[in-house]
Amino acid sequence: MTPHLRPARIADLGTITRFRLQRTSWLAAHGSDQWTRAGRGLPIELFVRSVARSVRNGETWIAEVDGEPAGTITVNDRADENLWSPGELADAAIVHFMIVDLRFAGGRVGESLLAHAAYLARTRHRTWVRLDAWTTNYALHDYYRRAGFTLARIAGPEATGPSRALFERRTAAWLTDHTSTLTRSPVTPAKFPETPSPTWQTHQHPYLRPHPGVVIEPGTTA
């Protein structure tokens, strides 16, 4: 599979909502309360409203495989209160709502989305890609570790949300010997949000390794 990355459109909201509902059902079937009302997850109505704002701000991306939407990610410089310090936020791109359609799990879609977050961080001169993961979803924690992230900490009791496992990876860690392709891409230092950068085929993306190790996405049986 060769994912293709493009900015999300308002017309994609239904697809992104389907991703979220599909993944929530899968997680529940595997014993996780992530994104459920019982687990204090964001209600689907508020999720849609939040994603719609991010789409309008140019912060949300869609990965496609053979023209089919296969995953999504939102990248900006915001996070829930009491997770990251102001200094940590100022030097990072923050990942939200990364979801891969289960039909495409294991096909490098998640890796492509995270690599794009790193690219966006680099263009804004941010040192880190950071994210918060559901505190009790240890399989998800393992996924991010396999993807090269380090657990920075579990946020303290002042952070009352259900996603308090804080992971980070240096933007430079995505760089390869083939980063000369970056010179052909616009690099505009700016605050989030801004006009989205170009779409990418996975094999063209400067932040994907040419011969990656296996990064098994949650939901696969491999």
Could you walk me through the main structural features you see in this protein, from its secondary elements to its overall organization?
This protein has 222 residues and is an alpha+beta fold. It has five helices and eight strands. Strands 6-7-5-4-3-2-1-8 form an eight-stranded mixed beta sheet. A hairpin with a 2-residue loop joins β2 and β3. α1 crosses α2. The longest helix has 17 residues. About 10% of the residues have low confidence.
Question: What attributes characterize this protein structure?
Answer:
8 strands, eight-stranded mixed beta sheet, 222 residues, alpha+beta
How is the secondary structure organized here?
Blueprint: E1 4-7, H1 13-29, H2 44-56, E2 60-65, E3 68-76, H3 86-90, E4 92-100, H4 109-123, E5 128-133, H5 138-146, E6 150-154, E7 165-170, E8 200-201
Parallel strand pairs: 4-5
Antiparallel strand pairs: 1-2, 1-8, 2-3, 3-4, 5-7, 6-7
Q: Which regions have little confidence, pLDDT < 50, spanning 5+ residues? A: 177-191, 209-216
Cα-based radius of gyration, to the nearest Å: 16 Å
What general form does the structure show? globular
Helix content: 25-40%
Question: What's the mean pLDDT score?
Answer: 83
Strand order of the largest sheet: 6-7-5-4-3-2-1-8
Oligomer: single chain
What proportion of the residues form beta strands (DSSP E)? Answer: 15-25%
- Give the topology string: H per helix, E per strand: EHHEEHEHEHEEE
The beta-strand count equals 8
